[in-house]
Request: fold
Amino acid sequence: MGRYVIRRLLQMIPVFIGSTFLIFFMVYALGDPVAALFGDRAPDPATAAQIRNDLHLNDPLWKQYLIYMKNIFTGDFGTAFNGESVTSLMGSAFPVTIRLTIVAILFEIVIGISLGVLTGMRRGKPDDTGVLLLTLIVISVPTFVTGYVLQYLFGVQWGWVSPSVSPEAPFNELILPGLVLALVSLAYVTRLTRTSIAENTRADYLRTAVAKGLPRRRIIIRHLLRNSLIPVVTFIGTDVGFLMGGAIVTERIFNIHGVGYQLYQGILRNNAPTVVGFVTILVLVFLIANLLVDLLYAVLDPRIRYA
Reply:
């Protein structure tokens, strides 16, 4: 196991370098950060030249990238165009989005897997058909529609929750935004779990467990569920990065100043240091989440061993 982890960590290095270089190239080579800094106003040539020199924009792109990589290993992700350091923006945005992602993942695990197990064991029954229809509707409706509808009903019409989130964004205020963020993924988890459960109920190992007279609860939890969760864990693991980086719509609806909000502002204002810095951290999140998913395979299926 230890050698496998070391090998995977070494494999992550070229993936991280390649991903961050592509991001850096697309942001800096395909746009002009100095022009974006001044907007519609034409900058003074001397001022623009000084800024380009300070940001090393006159250097070749590969050299700019090497300088950027050297700086981020010291914790310096650059300075946003408003004068605030990108590290400071991360310090305020990532804790909020992490809490929002935790709430969303809990909804996926608790509700999605539970519905998937129930419908998978009752395949073809009316409740199975109803859940399949409901999940199809959830997948078909855009997130911004679902978000505004739930915000109006629960926050404005019925007053059960606050329609917006305070700057501190505690967990109790993130329940409704977390549900909105998780709805589409929750529907996929439900359908994926249901399919996996339905396939494994006809497996030989399950018939053997029933023939041995094992308790039904033990058969479901120790045998059926563990073998059926491998594709589900794969989806949830990769979904962590998508939830953190793809929460732009949800954070805009509920006025949450998290990662999605900062990315939106950075893209809108062509704020290159902010975009590159935040996406770099999201690449690390994706890589670490995939590593943890691979390690969980051995926990779920004892037949899987890593050398």
About this structure: The radius of gyration is 24 Å. The CA atoms of residues 124 and 130 lie 10 Å apart. The chain has two domains: 2-72, 89-300.
